[in-house]
Each structure stands twice: as C-alpha cells, then as structure tokens.
C-alpha cells in the first residue's frame, strides 16, 4: 500500500497523544479544557491541521457522551468531569494530507482516570456500567475483525455489527447510523459502513470501525475507534 508509513506515523501520534491526555483528565476539568489540551498535545507532536472540520479533538463528558452530532455543529461545553464519570475523545490529526483517526473512552473513578483493567477491581456500582460498556466496545471490535473480509460489502458488515449491537443490549447512537468510514484525502469522499453501501471492503485501502453505543438502560455513551487495512488478505490495525 502506498504511503502506509505516513499513515502509521500520524496514527502513532494520535495514540501517544491520547495516552498523554489520560494523565490530564481529572475531576473538575471541563470539556472545553480537554479539547484545548488535546489539540495542544497534537500540535506539539507535529500535527499541522485537523481534518474533521478543523476539530482536533471531539470531546464529550458525562451524559453528553450520548450526543452524536456532526463536526459542523460541535462546540465543546463547560461540562465538568465528575468524581465518577466518563469522557469520550475522538482525535482527527492530519500531517501532509494523511489522516489519523482514533477514539477512546476514559473512565474516571474517585477523580482520576483509571486503566480499563482496573475497572474490574473497583467496588463501585457506577464502575459496573462503565466496565460493561468498555467490554462491549472491545467485543464489537473482536467481532468486526472475525467477520470482515475483502469481498464483503460495507453494507454486509454494517448489518452484521448493527445487529450484534442490538443483541448485546446496546443502541447505535451515531447520528447518521453508520459504524465507520474509509480514510481519504477529502472528507467528502468517505464511504461508510451503512445500509445501502454495496462497495466491497477490499476496494478501500484504509477504513475505521468506530461504534458509538449506549446500553438500552444506561446513562452514558461509549466510543472506540481504530483504523484497519488488509495486508496480503490479512486484516491489520494501523
């Protein structure tokens, strides 16, 4: 694949920046402050611009994690991170026209971000919902990797995973109903994992899987996004 190293580079910056951001997020920090910090970290690491409507970090805190909206209208709020809370972050760095795209869900317990594995050790009923959401996101990515093939269409993958979301007791929150998109040089050219898209996966070089979900009886939304590609017929994570 042409330019694979360029995409690996910018995505690696997104991953490192997300890790650094986890040390910044704590009780009392606002959504807007998290956005500013995230974009500063990306810029300090060489990111030139942000491909998603010039938004470097799409951040939501607390029950605002249920909101799904286009970057055209997104504005970070003054919502503060609570003592036991949840924060979703979606990074959109760009270097030399090559995109990164990476989203994670941070869990805050007793005022600080905890590692996903630590959730299992928290004697806190709030952590139960948080942990279940994180576990479900990981499960969906495993199902995605097990199901997807170059000859399958974007629609087939969408229908399979959207059904899985429902069977797991969750709701697809995406405002457009999709579960991911291709990586392009212009955002208007993206193909989506959505109903009606009969394009074969193998025709795309890079694509994201990014379910935005909420448990049917839950109060919070969850995100987890990675970029995938096929290399000699084998699915890889960027």
From TrEMBL:
Pfam families, per the entry: Peptidase_M24 (PF00557)
Highest taxon, organism lineage: Bacteria
Peptidase M24 domain boundaries: 11-228
Database matches in InterPro entries: Creatinase/aminopeptidase-like, Pept_M24, Peptidase_M24B
Protein name as catalogued: M24 family metallopeptidase
Species of the source: Paenibacillus chungangensis
């Amino acid at each position: 694949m042409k330019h694979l190293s360029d995409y690996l580079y910018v995505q690696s910056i997104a991953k490192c920046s997300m890790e650094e951001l986890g040390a910044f997020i704590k009780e009392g920090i606002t959504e807007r402050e998290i956005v500013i910090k995230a974009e500063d970290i990306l810029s300090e690491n060489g990111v030139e611009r942000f491909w998603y409507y010039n938004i470097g970090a799409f951040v939501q805190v607390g029950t605002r994690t249920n909101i799904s909206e286009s970057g055209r209208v997104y504005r970070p709020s003054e919502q503060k991170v609570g003592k036991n809370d949840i924060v979703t972050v979606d990074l959109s760095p760009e270097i030399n026209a090559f995109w990164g795209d990476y989203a994670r869900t941070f869990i805050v317990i007793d005022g600080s971000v905890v590692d996903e594995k630590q959730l299992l050790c928290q004697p806190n009923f709030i952590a139960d919902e948080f942990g279940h959401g994180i576990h479900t996101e990981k499960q969906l990515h495993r199902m995605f990797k097990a199901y997807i093939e170059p000859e399958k269409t974007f629609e087939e993958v969408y229908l399979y995973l959207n059904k899985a979301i429902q069977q797991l007791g969750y709701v697809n929150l995406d405002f457009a109903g999709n579960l991911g998109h291709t990586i392009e040089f212009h955002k208007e050219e993206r193909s989506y994992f959505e109903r009606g898209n009969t394009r074969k996966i193998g025709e795309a070089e890079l694509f994201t899987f990014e379910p935005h979900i909420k448990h049917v009886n839950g109060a919070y939304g969850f995100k987890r996004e990675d970029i995938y590609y096929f290399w000699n017929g084998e699915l890889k994570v960027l």
